[in-house]
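Supplementary Note 3. Input sequence used for the single-chain structure prediction.
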Amino acid sequence: MRACIGRVFAWQEALLATALILQNFDITLDDPTYEMKIVQTLTIKPKDFYMRAKLRTGITATALQERLMSAHGLGNQKLDVGPLKGLSANGAGSSITILYGSNTGTCQALAQKLSTRAKQSGLNVTMSEMDSVVAHLPKDQPVVIITASYEGQPTDNAVKFVSWLELTKDDKAFSGVKYAVYGCGHRDWKATFHRIPKLVDEKLGKLGGSRIAPVGTTDVSQGTIFDDFDSWVEKELWPALAPSGAPAKAPSAPSAVTLELSPQGREAHLQQNLQWANVLESKQLTKPGFPEKHHIKIELPSGTAYQAGDYLAVLPLNPEDTVKRVIKHFNLPWDGVVTITDCGPSILPTNRPMPVFDLLRGYVELSQPATIKDITTLAAHAHDATDAAQLRALATPQAHSAQVVAQRLSVLDLLARHGSVALAFGQFLALLPPLRPRQYSISSSALADARSCTLTFGVIAAASFADPELRFNGVAGSYLASLRPGDRLLVGVRAASKGFRLPSDPEKTPILMFGAGSGLAPFRGFIEERATQIREGGRKLAPAVLFFGCRDPEGDSLYPEQLKEWEKMGAVEVKYAFSRDVEKSDGCKYVQDRMTKDSKEVVEMWEMGAKVYVCGAPEVSQELGKAARKLVMETVKSKCSDVDGQKAEEWMKNWRGERVVSDVFA
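The predicted structure, written as discrete structure tokens, is reproduced below.
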């Protein structure tokens, strides 16, 4: 429609500019869920379409500047897209590459754990994100890939790697690559359980790679992540590596770090892509005598954006009481300073002094249940035969699950219980996994305030199973509850799955939300967004109903006044279930009871095209699922008698992830 004599030159410039950008930067969508919207004025272009650019692996800002400013021009420069820096030139048998795909930090922690053991076995180790090796997967050494499925999709730092595998057609493309894959998954997502690790394992094999060990998997809902991983490493991975020069068995116990610990910062050492943020507001939502629920408002770091439904990753600090227990057990000076000079756990700062209190509080997991391997190590250091026998008895899978995982007995708890175990402080440190961020659903809308977000969270505080005289305090909840306005914390926004978003056409699509306790969090964000759209845009939205469960309308009903205000605006209708005061919730004790009571409205909204969201503990999700199956059968039977439980289950399965989405937390 428009043209000029310089159009062809403009095309050429555009091609050159695009080539330069793609040669030097990795490009990602600013909003992974963006759907194309066209704007047409004089030209046609996408509306609100933004991309993020990140320098490619091996390129620094200085090198890029030199390349672009060179008198010889970029055409004579060679772009280094070869193997990752740090790969050993000694060849297979002396080096190993460990890759991870991780959103919440679990797979990264497993990779760090394996890295430590590999170093202790004399191997040169390179550890990095899966996306960092796209187009140059090492062929001169074994490659171990540890990754998770995020509701059937790759993690944020494995998207390009998985796409690369899926798009590769050459069946010899990975000839020479020796690999092993380990996967994390959650059984609540049955249809996509371990999809990504199995896909990676299968694709690499079909495209010429050599599998050195069977794919290993763990179910995070069982609480035995580290035990399952240890078992796979010892029984499958290390024996497979032995022919290439690695020892036939992993070290029976991690060697102690050498202690002789200045501050670069936890965000750098723990490598979790977090930034410092400020606390603006903090308050307790529940009354004394009820399980603690808190609200915190956080000013986000500059340039940070989020959408309703997203998560905020928070890197906590261990409770002071727990740190003091460690210091007391090992008879360390309260103001002691240590220096880690051995390779040790790869996430610990080395070769610089650090207060022992800071090290224990901010770098390692002190409350993590002990693994079977940890218990075996303790048994080997027990000087009393009874202690050794009792620890060995706990190291069986059944006893470990029932007595250690279920009661959350940490290495510290077992040391306190079995006094004859002579474990040095350095050996204790080597057993501990790195401190990991915890993810919380954001309970606000960026449409209302893009510069800050809120979290709605619970605090675990109860008598310890290990010692009834001690309190067990949840690490992250206790940490967040201790913060006050003006305090700082390390955070990072993590995108929700594409399904757990508000409908793109809120005027046409009704929504049904089901949650209990702090499961209200993402729905508060949804409702605040709808309220903002009504208040500032004058929009008439489709109906939204929240089914919310708690104990008592006076003691732990979260944000009651705010929800009433939003109800008056037409942003939501709230239907309560009070487990301790059913008279005030129409005889409904739990959320599933309320759904059953109001089943007619639920069915009507479903038939109007409603989208269904569930957020809460596994028990809430399971009970809602049972009630939903019963409702489906009753509804379908009224129209068609040929229906049974299996058909109802298949019908529900077809809508999961599309019109029915859930966010289950433990």
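The CA atoms of residues 287 and 555 lie 5 Å apart. Residues 71-93, 243-248, 260-264 have pLDDT under 50 and may be disordered.
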